[in-house]
Amino acid sequence: MDSSQLPLDLGHRPALGREDFLIAPCNELAVAWVDQWPEWPGHALAFYGPSGCGKTHLAHVWRTESAAVFVSAEDLLASEPTELLKKQGGCILDDIQDDLTRDAELQRKLFHLYNYAREEAGYLLFTGREAPARWDVSLPDLASRLSAIPSFEMGAPDEFLFEALLVKLFYDRQLTISKEVLRFLVLRLDRSFQAAREIVSVLDQQSLASQREITIPFIKSVLGT
Q1: Which residue has the higher pLDDT, 157 or 166?
Q2: Between the N and C ends of the chain, which has fewer C-beta atoms within 10 Å?
């Protein structure tokens, strides 16, 4: 293979099961509420935090337990609440904060979905960068509903979780790295979920392109250090 060419990005399948979710102080409260379902204080719950903090993964965990379905902004606009939410069912509204702010019709649809879930004993799980109470919506009735949703922050990882996260991300791509490489990365990267995902993706692609193992000298060459 020409080392100057990157291979085709065929993607990888991340592990999104309960056994793959890494529990730490920054997310344990959110996990505890997933475990309490269906004994939630209402029919809606929200997890919020920075990109890559595990919100969507935890939503997948809840989906497995509840048989809920992911509902995008497009789904919400194209369908009626009765089509999206069956009795005792659930919907996951994953990262629709920006779409909601821009679209008054989407706000109206979400308001009706919320009411229908409450009437039919269904459940809604929201994820976003901020708690729903801080979302910028123009529909007063929806703003009132969103402000009442119990919301739990999922923060940035501590050092131990960050190290475990790197191991998981490499494992998801069927890559193994040495303890020395792992420590090298932990000490030099910004401690964020986004940084972990980006470096693992880059190292995977560059390793395939150059047919080299992921070692400390290789990482230095990739990072230009």
Answers
A1: 166
A2: C
Does the residue 204 lie in any domain?
yes
Q: Which of 4-8, 54-58, 212-216 has the highest mean pLDDT?
A: 212-216
Range of the domain at 67: 18-153
Q: Is the pLDDT of residue 133 over 80?
A: yes
Q: Are residues 100 and 35 in the same domain?
A: yes
CATH number, domain of 217, equals: 1.10.8
Q: Residue 24: which of 48, 62, 53 has the closest Cα? A: 53
What number of other Cβ atoms are within 10 A of residue 90's Cβ? 25
Burial (Cβ within 10 Å: 0-12, 13-18, ≥19) of residue 85: buried
pLDDT one-digit tens code per residue, 91-126: 999 999 999 999 999 999 999 999 999 998 899 999
pTM for this predicted structure? 0.76
Q: At what angle do helices 179-188 and 216-223 cross, to 10 degrees?
A: 30
Residues 97, 132: Cα–Cα separation, whole Å: 8
Instruction: Write the CB contacts of 78 (distance below 8 Å, at least 6 apart in sequence).
Output: none
User: d(Cα 30, Cα 197) in Å, to the nearest integer?
Assistant: 21
Whether 59 and 165 map to the same domain: the answer is no
Does 9 map to a domain? Answer: no
